[in-house]
Sequence to fold (94 residues):
Amino acid sequence: MFGYREAAAIGKHISLIIPPERLEEETFVISQIKEGKKVDHFEMVRLTQFGTLVPISVTVSPVIAADGKIIGASKIARNISEQILLQQEKAPFF
Fold:
């Protein structure tokens, strides 16, 4: 979705795809996960390898160990570019 090959992205910080002015979105998501809360269909914009902005919707869930500790997060992101274009086409024109 973001144009990176595995070797260019594995081991890199998530800020690789976050526009600098939108870093607070990731801070919000992480704060919710630390509290054990799920983030559902949160819309944001991310950067491709080529600098193009991509609107996405993410769902993030905490990964919880058997002892109840949060040990990570599971994130699903989907490109919503087409959905946004369809909404804009349906918007009334004044």
Notes: The domain at 6-90 is CATH 3.30.450.20 (Beta-Lactamase). The chain has one domain: 6-90. The mean pLDDT is 94.
